[in-house]
Design goal:
307 residues; Spore Coat Polysaccharide Biosynthesis Protein SpsA, Chain A; 8-stranded mixed sheet; 36% helix
Length: 307
């Protein structure tokens, strides 16, 4: 009841940030144990975080998202329904991953969405793209030359997105059905230009482990987000775009936003799983990647991320 009542209040500004965000963090801190340091109590910690996250989703989702949808319905020529619109943007150079991209997109419960795929490089042909995406409602695709960087591909994609919010999907990660809806709740609560995840689950395929990276760094303003979790408010970000590079383009955009005085917010840890295998563009040894993380279990335990 207290959490529900808290979210009913209009957001007030306190030192440049909504006071209700601070109040939610304080409420969560009272309900959730501290992240364990030695690996013991990991299951209890994750379960407690799940319970608080579900309560916040129910309380906040009934109010703030309805208000946003009502405002958009009155000010936009688009027909109402489905909440704020989201463009799911994926730049991929791997034809074999198109099916996974489509599966992640189709299972999203947030209704008002579109899919924009940038087919990067020479590994695609028009027929393959049509076969993979032609019957996906709201999907469009564009070709990008091999010489372009990932940052340039993403900027090209943003220019072809129709919605205010752009959610960057990586082609080899997993996104739960509530991913878009929860990301929009974080964006609405924080009023940040970019939201995403600082704490997140990851599967290390070579060592058959599911880990929770950066535990305890949820629901806070932050200088770091996982690249596969970015949701960008295109209206707020203005002319800022990804740097023209293949590695570090995500953090480059975040740094530019922070330098411009814009807010970056980390939401909850759930409904996203990063998959680490031999194919990743960023190579790091599993032990280094897992440093400071909590071991959740073997790779089959990644389903605990979906709430």
């Amino acid at each position: 009841m207290a959490l529900d009542a808290m979210w009913r209040r209009p957001a007030r500004m306190l030192r440049g940030a909504p006071e209700d965000v601070r109040l939610l963090n304080e409420a969560a801190a009272r309900l959730v144990p501290r992240a364990p340091r030695d690996g013991s109590g990991t299951e209890a910690f994750v379960d407690a975080c799940r319970d608080v996250h579900i309560a916040a989703r129910r309380a906040y989702g009934r109010h703030a998202m309805d208000v946003v949808a009502e405002i958009e319905a009155k000010t936009s020529p688009k027909p109402p329904g489905g909440g704020p619109g989201v463009s799911v943007l994926c730049s991929t150079n791997r034809r074999a991953n198109l099916e996974a991209v489509v599966d992640n997109y189709r299972q999203q419960r947030h209704e008002s969405r579109e899919l924009v795929v940038i087919a990067h490089g020479d590994g695609f042909d028009d027929q393959a793209l049509a076969d993979a995406l032609g019957d996906v409602a709201g999907a469009r695709w564009y070709r990008a030359p091999q010489a372009w960087t990932l940052g340039r591909c993403l900027n090209f994609g943003i220019e072809h997105c129709n919605e205010r919010f752009v959610a960057k999907f990586d082609d080899d990660d997993a996104y739960g059905p509530e991913y878009l809806g929860d990301s929009l709740l974080a964006a609405t609560a924080s009023r940040a230009t970019i939201v995403g995840k600082h704490s997140y689950f990851a599967v290390l395929e070579r060592s058959d482990r599911t880990i929770l990276r950066f535990p305890g760094r949820e629901c806070r303003f932050t200088p770091y987000l996982a690249g596969g979790t970015l949701m960008i408010d295109v209206q707020a970000i203005g002319p800022l775009r990804f740097p023209d590079r293949n590695i570090g383009e995500d953090q480059g955009l975040i740094r530019a936003c922070l330098a411009a005085g814009q807010a970056v917010f980390a939401g909850d840890m759930f409904n996203y799983v990063q998959r680490r295998g031999d194919h990743n563009t960023w190579t790091a040894a599993d032990d280094y990647f897992a440093r400071g993380a909590l071991i959740v279990g073997d790779a089959s335990m990644s389903g605990r991320a979906m709430v």
